Amino acid sequence: MKNTNLFLYIGVISAILSLSTSMILSEELVQQITLQECLKIANENNIRIIETKKEIETVKSKLIQVKAYPNPEIEINDYGLVNKLGTSESDREIKLSQEIEILGKRKKRMGIAKTEIEIFNQKLNSIWAEVRFDVKAKYNEILLIQKKKELAIENLNLARNFLANIQMKYESGKALVNQVIRAKIEVSRAENELLIIEKDISISKAELNLLLNRPPGYKFLPVDELIYLKKYLDLDDLTKKTLSQNPELKIELLSLDTAKLKLSLSKRETISNPVIGILQKQESNEKTLGVNLGLSIPLWYRKQGEIQESKTELEKINSKIDYLKKEMELKIFNAFIETELAEKQVILLKNTVKEANELLRVVS
Question: Which of 86, 219, 305, 329 has the highest count of CB atoms within 10 angstroms of its CB?
Answer without folding.
Answer: 329
